[in-house]
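Posting here for the record, re: 4-nitrophenyl phosphate.
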Amino acid sequence: MKKNILFVCLGNICRSPSAEAVFKHLVEKKGEEGNFFIDSAGTSAWHAGEKADARMRRHAKKRGIELTSISRKFVPEDFDRFDYIIAMDRENMDEMKRMARNKNDLDKLHMMTDFSQKFNYHEIPDPYYGGDEGFELVLDLLEDANKGLLDHIKSS
Ligand code: 4NP
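Prediction output follows.
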């Protein structure tokens, strides 16, 4: 059965479009793209309609990962369309918890870092106001945690 996965951050221009692209890259490498629908969204509409942040796109491209998504706001209907909704940080998680309509919605929410294998971070830190190293850290954390997410989905 096809699984629908949604990655969520604040602006949907740095972390969640990267998570989307990293997860797509991972499942494509394994020839499993037919088993997934993968998307991303932001809890704010501040950047709705925009491409991912140019700095984030540049750092991802160095790793062979292309960010193609256009920013959109997370809406309550996303709870109906997705099986796994993955928050990048605690603030994103709390905002979606407030929007959840029932226990079924709440059960779909997970923290990205809960799937980390090598790293011991509790959130994917927001790179927007920082330098190059923040964007690299986002990608390091996402490459690791997305492997864990794929393992989790396949074993559940
Ligand atoms: P993101 O990063 O949530 O990872 O997309 C941010 C993007 C924009 C802003 C903050 C964080 N902003 O303040 O506009």
